[in-house]
Specification:
By secondary structure, the chain is α+β, with helices and mostly antiparallel strands. The protein contains seven helices and 18 strands. It is globular. Bound molecules: 2-OXO-4-methylpentanoic acid. The site of 2-OXO-4-methylpentanoic acid (COI) has 6 residues, from loops.
Length: 358
């Protein structure tokens, strides 16, 4: 295992937190993990109190966008073990994003040992309340202080934690987007790159003014095929087939998306990953065969969609009868928090470690 230095806070901030009312993403655990990349190697891995970083105004990621991230969650099992959900898939995706953004790969043992050490230190921050979890945000940024456009020669990889409840606390109202574009073939749509989220904010703000939480992106060429939502992947149950857009390099290869596909197939449901036409979705909404629609993501988990707006018409879905979404969400939750068997080998138990400051 990698050897990291550890500098612990004198006093935890945990007593200040109301775990019954946690706003998403605003409460941060006591510590963070940082490791730097310089001269072609990862070095100086360390745990330190969560807090501000000191940054040069010329920091390359702030100008040219070499910034990628992941989203993961940790849970406590009924016997108090720390559980992670498919962490190696997050590590692989981080490195796929890094490749595309011309950033260095992070070795698996650095990712996992930094994460597991931090989880051991801040394990009390994993909420126990149903529907809550510890959101984990690993990210990598280019840290050269240099004004020219070139890949940074220095990087930092950082992990911090937020105890969270739900990301969306209501059913979703979404609008199909036909003007703005999130990603085109050959672009960076499959990378979990900060800029993809920046690009979605202005179009999302336009639909939010009209009472929708998110937009549903369509393809960049014809606006004919469904891609994904601003913060998550998209599924629709039409008749008895669960349909989701296929991975073609423009959408995120969501880990919750993949888990929903595998779980639904395992339960005997028919699942199709395909080029999913907006026209098929709207026709199904009109003729009543659109039974359910939902968003999937680490933060969103599985969020039911109650309204899909298209060209000025709202198509409503009876979320109270969204039994498939409900069942998949409950089963996934139960696997993640150790309340049920994990036939897929997705859950990773974090080994307890004795931690000393040095
Ligand atoms: C996640 O679901 O983990 C994401 O990274 C999406 C973000 C909107 C929170």
């Amino acid at each position: 295992m990698a050897n990291f230095s550890i500098n612990l806070r004198k006093e935890s901030k945990i007593s200040e937190v109301d775990f019954d009312n946690i706003p998403f993403g605003r409460v941060f655990a006591d510590h963070m993990f940082i490791i730097d990349y310089e001269d072609g190697e990862w070095k100086n891995g360390r745990i330190q109190p969560y807090g501000d970083l000191s940054l040069s105004p010329a920091l390359s990621c702030m100008h040219y966008g070499q910034a990628i991230f992941e989203g993961m969650k940790a849970y406590k099992s009924p016997s108090n073990e720390i559980l992670l959900f498919r962490p190696l898939d997050n590590h692989k995706r981080l490195n796929r994003s890094a490749d595309r953004m011309c950033m260095p790969s992070l070795p698996e043992d650095v990712f996992m040992s930094g994460l597991e050490l931090l989880l051991n230190i801040d394990s009390d921050w994993i909420p126990q309340k149903e529907g809550s979890s510890l959101y984990i945000r690993p990210f990598m940024i280019g840290t050269d202080d240099y004004l020219g456009v070139k890949p940074s020669s220095k990087y930092s990889f950082i992990i911090y934690f937020c105890p969270v409840g739900s990301y969306y606390n209501q059913h979703l109202r979404i609008q199909i987007e036909e003007k703005y574009v999130r990603a085109a073939a050959g672009g960076v749509g499959y990378a979990k790159a900060a800029g993809n989220y920046a690009a979605s904010m202005y179009p999302a703000s336009l639909v939010q003014k009209h009472g929708y939480q998110q937009l549903l992106w369509t393809d960049a060429i014809e606006h004919k095929y469904i891609e994904e939502l601003g913060t998550s992947n998209f599924f629709a149950l039409i008749g008895d087939t669960l349909i989701t857009p296929q991975l073609e390099g423009t959408i995120l290869d969501g880990i919750t998306r993949d888990s929903v596909i595998k779980l639904a197939k395992h339960l005997g449901h028919r699942v199709e990953e395909k080029r999913f036409e907006v026209a098929e979705l709207i026709e199904a909404a009109k003729n009543g065969s659109l039974k359910e629609a939902f968003a999937t993501g680490t933060a969103a988990t599985l969020a039911k969609i109650e309204t899909i707006a298209f060209r000025g018409t709202d198509y409503n879905i009876d979320v109270e009868s969204s039994v498939l979404a409900e069942d998949l969400a409950n089963r996934l939750d139960a696997i993640k928090n150790g309340h049920s068997e994990d036939p897929f080998g997705w859950v990773h138990k974090v080994e307890p470690q004795a931690v000393h400051s040095y």
